[in-house]
Every structure is written in C-alpha cells, then in structure tokens.
Amino acid sequence: MNKILILLIAMLPMQMLKAGHHHRYSAANQITFHNGVTKDFVGSGFIIKHRNKTYAITAKHVLLETMDQGVNSIDIQEQVKQWQLAPFNEDTGVVKLGQLLNANQQEALDIKVLQNDWLVFEVLNNDSTLKTLKPANKPLKSGEAISVYGCNYSNQKTCQQQHFKGTFEREADANLLIKLELDDLSQLRGLSGAPVLNSNHEVVGIVSNVLPDEVNGGFYFAPFNIEAVKSFLNAHE
Fold first, then answer.
1. Which run of H or of E encompasses 49?
2. What is the DSSP letter of 147?
3. Does residue 45 register a pLDDT over 80?
4. DSSP-assigned letter for residue 3
5. Sign of CA dihedral 76, 82, 84, 88
6. What mean pLDDT is reported for the chain?
7. Is-contact 60 71, C-beta < 8 A?
C-alpha cells in the first residue's frame, strides 16, 4: 500500500460526556522544561497496568511539538524537567511520570516516528481520577467496535471527555485500519496518544495517524497497535 502519512496531534469534537458519570480514560500531556516553559496540552496520554506495574503511554510523534524547546531525538532528559498527565478540567490531581523507558538518543525526531509511534514512561505518583487500563489480550476481529475518549484543542477549556466510535476492518503493518462514524477527518487535533479501546474497554491501540483507503476512497483512522508496547514491556520487566 502506498501510505500517505497524515500527522495527527489529536482528535475531533464528538459527543461530550457529563462529569461524574463515566471513567476518565485519557488526559493531556503537560510538559515543563528546564528553561521554565510549560506546555499544558501536547496531545494526550493514558495509563495501563502490566504485570502489576503501572505505566504511562502516549504517541511518540507528540514530541514533534517539543522541538522548539530543543528536543531533537527520542531522548528528553536534558530538556524536560517534568512530564505529567492532567485530566481535562478537573482539580483532582495529576499523574506524575518518571523515566522515559524507550528513550533513544540515536533515533531522530522526525516524521518517521509514525512508523513506531509509542512512548512508555514509568509512573512516579498518581493522584488523578484517570482510569488504569489493561492492554487487550486478543487482537481485534473485523467488524469489531472500538472507542476513543479524550478532548481536542478547540474545546480544551470546557471539555472533560468526548467519545468517538468506529469499526475495525483490518491491520496494515503496525496500524489498525478503522472506519470512523463520520466523513470528515480534517479536524483531527488533540487526541494523539489517547487510548483506542475494544468493547471490553481494553487498550488495542494508540491514536496515531490516518491512512488512505485505496479501494473505497477516503481515509482510515489508523491508530498504532498496542502489541509493540506489550512486547517492549515483556522484555523490559
């Protein structure tokens, strides 16, 4: 397939969920740099439990938004003072992240990161209401429903969580090809790094990209498969 990569640093406006009635599945990446600059919403992230240990996950390409602060590889320790996940418009606390476990100073920060689009952090402390998720043990089947939860940049001042739905069709390399219940994908901004969940609310993917549907026209929503994260953690622990 001739892939046309279209960068997503998030998702689009969908139905708002009322506070207090649903779990919070994703939060904003809030990054403070050693030079004193803070970016309050650099895409999204979420937390998972794997073998009784909690980790934070986001998309690698969100780091493209930190290049103006001197980040030029998948190694952030010299520039980033603190990275935390902040649930949208809640005062209940944050998730403080520790070491970036898949840091790699030899990996350049450019559009090619979409080919392996995930970051895994240690979690130092969690005072938030963010739901701890489980990676799915079984792959998606064609026709299976998926959900994405989060907020976009345009409504970040009022949003707590939105729900986005789609149907899985097939895999293409490390991407899941999903048809969304909407026609226009041009407004995708804000949910990169958010979790893609199956009907059991288990993580199957990470919001990452869109790819062309060369048979029917239009585009697939193409999150990155969670299997790469699982394989990394199995080897790391």
1. strand 44-50
2. E
3. yes
4. -
5. negative
6. 89
7. no
Name which of 229, 12, 9 is nearest 133 in CA terms: 229
Give the integer Cα–Cα distance in Å for 139 and 212. 22
- Residues 59 and 193: their CA atoms lie apart, in Å, by 4
pTM: 0.90
Token pair in block for residue 147: 């959900």
Structure tokens at 146: 């998926």
List, in order of start, the domains of the chain with CATH numbers.
6-13+134-233 (2.40.10.10), 25-133 (2.40.10.10)
Task: Write down the pLDDT at residue 10.
Answer: 40
Contact between 24 and 130 (Cβ < 8 Å): yes
For residue range 101-151, what is the model confidence (pLDDT) as tens digits?
A: 999 999 999 999 999 999 999 999 999 999 999 999 999 999 999 999 988
User: pLDDT value at position 164?
Assistant: 86
pLDDT category of residue 183 using cuts at 50, 70 and 90: low
Q: Do 123 and 100 meet the contact criterion of CB atoms below 8 Å apart?
A: no
Listed residue (167, 166, 165, 160) closest to 143, CA to CA: 167
Whole-number Cα distances in Å, 188 to 153, 167, 207 = 9, 18, 11
Q: Which helix (H) or strand (E) holds 96?
A: strand 95-100
Per the DSSP assignment, residues forming a β-bridge with 192 are none
In angstroms, the Cα distances linking 25 to 128, 148, 194, 220 are 11, 9, 8, 23
